[in-house]
Every structure is written in structure tokens, then in C-alpha cells.
Amino acid sequence: MPPITVHIINHTHWDREWFLTSAYTSRWIPGLIDRLEQLAAQNPTFRFWFDGQTLVVEDLVEVAPEYAPRLRKLVQDGHLTVGPYYCQPDWKLTCGELLIRNLQYGQQDLQRLGAEVKTGWLVDTFGHISQEPQIHRLFGIDSVYVWRGVPRIAPYFRWQGPDGSSLFTIDLFGGYRNLYGVTHAPEVALKRLLSEVEKLRPYYPTPDIPLFDGYDLEDDPEDPLLFFAKIPGIDPNLALRESTPPLFAQEMASKGLPLPTIAGELNSGKYGAVFPGTLSARTYLKVMARDCQQMLFHQCEPLAVMASLHGRPYDPRRYEAWGRALLQNAVHDCICGVSIDQVHEKMEIIYRQVFDDMQRDVQASIESFMGGFAPGLYAIGLTPFATDQWAIVDDHLLHIQTEGVGVWPVREKIPVETRQEPVDSFTWRNEHFSAQVDATGVVRVGAAQLGKLVISEEHGDTYSEERGAQLGIVQPTSPLVLEQRSERHAVLRWSGAWSSPNARVTATVRLIFDPSPVIRWRIDLDSQGTDLRVELLFATARQGKILAGMPFHGVERPVADTDLLPRRLPADLSKLLLGQREVGKVSTFPFHDFVALSGGNETLAIMARGVHSYTADEQGNVRLMLRRAVEWLTRAALKHRVGDAGPFFYVPDARCERTVRHEVAVGFGSFDGDSMELQRLNAAYQHPPLVVQTEGPGAGTSWRLLAENAPLSSLHMTGDVALARLYNPTSQVQQLSTSYQQTDVWGKLAGEISELAPGAIATVQLPTGPGATPGPTGDRARVRLLTRPSWRVGDNHGAPDPAVLDQLRRKIAHIDEQLEAIQTQMEAEEDETTRLRLQHRTYILARERAEFRLSLVLNQRKLTQARDQSHAYLFQPDEEIAAIGLELNRLRIKRRIYDYVVAGL
Description:
- 29% of the residues lie in helices and 29% in strands.
- With 905 residues, the protein is an alpha+beta fold.
- The longest helix is centred in the last third of the chain and has 34 residues, at 832-865.
- The two termini are 20 Å apart.
């Protein structure tokens, strides 16, 4: 064997809330710290990587505060690394500003620990957005580890973002646990080591192979380097070296290797599944997340900045606490909807509490700065773009015109006539489009047919969606009703339903027309039953490029990804790729805010608030997934996925049996999709002005704080300085209206800026000179907020099915019989290899049994605790659940170890 260096990295991937809530998993961290202290005492060079997140420190301190100094010592002595992130969020489903705060909070936590980490760790993230290189670079991070989403096998590559930022990236195509648990099967440990080196060596450009000893929720790690040092017969040309993610990345980057460049998002399931079904699992959670993020970054913080300029104290700790709470819900297993029901019940409580708290903060801020204004009706602009739009408030239609972030008078107020007039059809014309609504509620604009609710079979699970046959459409159960009318607007309503013997979907749809280039849908959707999906179909009859809004970028995509591997792999790849993969084709993609079809100088944009899953085809048909009702966390033998994604848990709340208000719009424009005009249209819809009625004692009538032709990610205070984070998601340079002092993300000055380069994210100081701020001043005003955001998700009215619980009991009994038979076979077996395979099978079955047991107990508790309005059971551990959960975790670990043991035989 030629000389080879094996770089061993010890770690754990900490899924704090997945098959248990953090009330249970946090109790495992003290034992992990105990074990790390033992390993460090035995081996001064021992290093351990705690999943790249500082949230685990918070969890530890909450359950065992006496461990805080011990953890700090491990960190400062170099034995333990946490960060650089606060948590491990899903990057595709989390808004851009919250992703920035995730790194900001993580860096703050590291500073308090006296540590610094400049390497990212994203080994189980379900795909990656195009702007990750730039976001990491904003914090001085120059390297990152990834696994899922990479479209080629490339151990090292330059990952390039749309602004030109790049990261040295290590691709863990062989997995992040390929040397895991060698001490658990010492008789094959050396064989496993040599097998991993042999299969990985052809893919690496130098004789350096990284191997990873770690698994999910590992609380009893080992020291493989010390273990192998005691084994005789290791080839002297095979050098084993203790390493860490930063050390290995630094060493490989310093070699000056010719690296391929991969640009943009990493969203391929070719070598590691990215689970498109997570984009639409439990869509109610996505709506809650969007509304809370919107309120924090586009209402609370900007309004608090405006209030601080009028004397109201700005407490950054308040907004950071809300940001951290939202990030805990943004963890990939959580926001993806692939955890047990109790995790998601807990998320709902947190979302609602944060939403209500932020509502009160919004009101207090507005009252603080409206005192200098004359009595009257005002619009508070929340986007730097100038806007011209319409809003229905009480019994009037208001024409709202703003010139950026600030306060502007509402000068046009048109009386609204409330009607309940049945109509056979309805026609609306303005300067932008001509539309006709037929008796089925479908909106026709030219050849386009917009807004049909389609019901189809669903054969997937929470991780992976698989559309079956179309079952029907939501048919009207009432006439089309003209609900409101004025000389400049109309509101139509229709109700509809679809049903089968085992399922039912109902919807109340409102269509809103006004002089703007936007048609709005407000859909109150409900359903009962499982294994179905509800999609909102827009047959646009348009062709052109497809652009999807993503954090800080508009991404152009094809209608499908067919660059995937077959289900059966060649021998060399089958040994290498042990995780899940997508097969066949993937046509479901993520989006934030909008999906646009753009051809020439004409664009149709479909905009949504909190929907993140779309499909499109060559004929211009775009479907938004409003609901996907399933009830199993994972299923076996799916058509478009290889491998099981997680535990076989029964999760009835994933049927989504509740009312959710979906807000969707279609906008028309004579502009290219890769333009600020589309961004302006989207910003006006996503972040409409707040309308207030004030009785303030002042005389002011307007106040402009910030006006630019660019979207705003954040407006907040650092010390006594107001910082605005602007970005350019297009491929053209965007001139700013003035020169600003640019800062880093912390507010430290970094020169001047007068334009936004393509793809740029820039933080700038707002001018504070005479006349720039604070606008009209006066005493605190009496203010009525007339457009207060409402909570859009109703209560869950689903429950576990007793027949399914009986099915779980039968499965447990059947596995008990199988385990007894295998145990008898093992006792009589003399061949060591066969015994190892039988042991592997034992762990597979025992793990499934523990999954079924835990799922059964959790659902039994749901039935008995549903009436507990305190929700204490979500935050306080139950000892029976704790015992089964710990047993399951141990069995998951043993099963995964033996996956690699058997693969090496």
C-alpha cells in the first residue's frame, strides 16, 4: 500500500428534536460531557466536534447549569468545538435574514466561550441555497463541509455564490459516520478501516482520507485513534492522525489543488437525498414560520428603529430572544415537518407566543413615533421601494402610496358597498389585465386559467412526496357571490368541496381585484383523511424561463431534475453510497415568496405567503402545494426514493386536519423576471404598509427614513446606530440613491458604497445628520392599527386512529417472534461472518420494534393528554417515554454501526 494518511474526525450530529423533544435529548448532554472529559484525560490530543451549533450549550445549561464551566474548559483546552452556527436550520425553508442571525448568534455564543470557529458544518442539511457562500463569508468563514445536494462526486470543490463569493468545500459523499463505532465490533475494526480507505482512495486527489467517527445523538463517543494504536498489524504506510473539521479543511486548502467550481444551489438528490416532500409536509408550520419571520424582520425591528429615534428604548435582547426562538423551530427536522407530533405541537405553542408578543411590540413602537403627526389616516411603509397599492380597511378601499420606509398620509378613501349578490360570472378590467371569473371560481386572463384546486392521491411520507392519480377538483357548493364592491375594487367569494368515502376537502375562496396589476386569492382550506394532496393550479399558458425566489437570490431552474442515478448501482458506488437518494426524476422544488414565468419583456409572478413547494411544466402549468396529508413519518419502498428516511412513526397530525388560510397572488408586468421590477412587485405584496388611525397632537404629515430601489432584509439598531441590510437578487448592478457608510454584519465600518453588485448583500448605516431623522416629534399618540396581521392557522382537529394503534401492537408482536427465531439461529451458528450478519438483522428488527413501541406510547399519550390545556407534557419528560427513547437511540446507534460492519465484510 502506498503511504496514506487517515484523518480521523470525532463528532456527533445532534438532532435535538426529532423522535423526541429536547425535554428528553437535552438530558443526554451531561453524560456526553462526562465521557468527553474521560477521553480527554486518557488522550491529550483527543478532539470532538459537537455538530457545529451552540444551541446545545443552551440546552445543557438549562438542564444542568453546573456543567457550564466544565464545557467551557473543554472548549478552551481544545478538546471540544461548538459553532459556528447557533443551530442547524433547514436552509431552503428559512428566510435569509434568520439565516444570517443564526451565524450571528452562534458567533456571539462562541465569543462568550472564548472560542473562534471559521469552518462550517452542514453534513445533514436537506440541500443548500445559492447564497450560502456569501452568507458564510460575511462572518469570515472560508470552508464548509456538506453532504446532501451536491450534483457530482467531488471531495473538494469551490462553491461559488451569485455574487462571486466562494468557499473551499469538502463533500462527504461517503457519509459522515463511516468509521463510527469501531470499538463496538473490535474483531472487524481493522477490516472496516482498510475497507473504507480502499473504497474512498480512488476519489481523493492526494493520499489524505478523512474518516468520521460519529453518529446522530451520540452520547457515548469513543477514541478510535487510541483504539487502533493498540492493534498490531496495521500497515506502516497507513498513518492515522487526529484531526478536526477546521484542521483538515485548512490542510487540504493549503495544498493548492486544482479544484472544480460548482456554482449556485446544491439541490440534487443524486448522491444524497434532499427530500422534496419536506417542502410541503405540515404546511401549517410553514405558514406560522413565515408570518413570525415577516413580523420580526419587516415589522418589529424596523418599527422599533423608528421608535428609538423618538426616544423609545431599543432593547436588542428582546429581538434576539425572538430570533433564537424562531431558529429553534427552524432546525431542519422541525420546520421540515419530519418529527414526532409532540415536537410540532411544541413549535406551534412557541410560534403563537412569539407572534402575540411581537404584536404588542409593534403597537408600542407605533404609538411611540406617531405622536408628532397630525390626526388622520396614515400608511407606515415597511419596504425601501416606492409602492402604489390598495387595501380594504373596514368599510373603505384605501389608495396607499409610499416612498420607502416611513410614514405617508392616505389621501384617497373610497366607500365600500357590502353585498351578498350571487352572480353567474364576473369580469374585471384594469390597465394591466382583463379577467373573467366563471361559476367554478377559476380566473381566466387571456388563455390562462388560474386558481383551480386539484386533489390527487399521495403515496409519500413526510420526507418524500409522490403524486398519484388525480382524484378530482374542489367543486363549488355555493354560487359565486359578489361580496364587496366599489368603483375601484371587487371581492368575490365561493365555497367548494371534494369528498370520497374516506376523505374530504373544503375551501372558502375569496378573490380580490383592484386597480393594481395583482389578483389576490385568500383560501380557507380544510381537510379530513390521509394520503391526499391539494394543489393550487395556475395554467398560465405561458412559456419562458422559470425563476424561483430564494433567500437573497432569484434562481432559474428547469422543470425537472433528471440527472439522477438508477435504483440499482454498480458495485463500487453501492458500497460508497449508503444513504438515501432520489431516483427517476425530481420536479418539486423550493421557493420563497414567488415563482415567475418570464419570456421576453413579460412576466407573470405567482406570489405566496408561506407556501414553499411548487412544480412546473413546459406548458406553463404551475402548481403550488397547499396541503399534503400523510400520517407516517417514513414509508418503505417508495417509487422515487432509495432508502428509508427515518423512524417508522405514526404521526396523525401530519394529516393537517385543520383550517389554514393561504394567501396567494398573481402579478402581471412588462418587465424581465431578472429585474428589480419583479422585486418591487413582490415586496409590495409580501410586506404591505401598515395602516393606522392616529389622534396624535402633532402637525407632521410624512416621514421618509429609507428609500431605495432594492429589497430590505433587515432594519435594526446596533448600539445607537441604525443599520439597514439591502440586497440585490438580480444579475444587474443596482445604483443606490446616495452613498452610504457600509459596515460588516456587526456594524463595524468598512468603507463607502453607492451601488449593489449583482447578488450582493450589504449592510449600511442610515444617515443621522440634521434633517435625516427623526421626522416629526411629539408626545405618545393614541393609535389604532387597522391592518393588524391575523393568525392564519386553526386548531388541530385530528386524532390518532385506534385501528392504527392496534396495527402497531401487531407489528411489535410479529417482530418479537422474528427476534426469538434469530436468537435461536445465532446460538447455533459457528461462522463468524454469518453471526455478524445475523447480529445486524437483530439490530434492524430491534430498532423497528423500539420505534413502534415509542410511536404507540406517544399516540396513547396524545389521546389522554389532548385535554391538557397547559401543554406541560410537551416540556416535562415522561419517564416511560424517556426509557423507550433512550433504548431506541442505543439501537439506532448499534444498527448504524453494523451497517458499516456488514458493508465491510
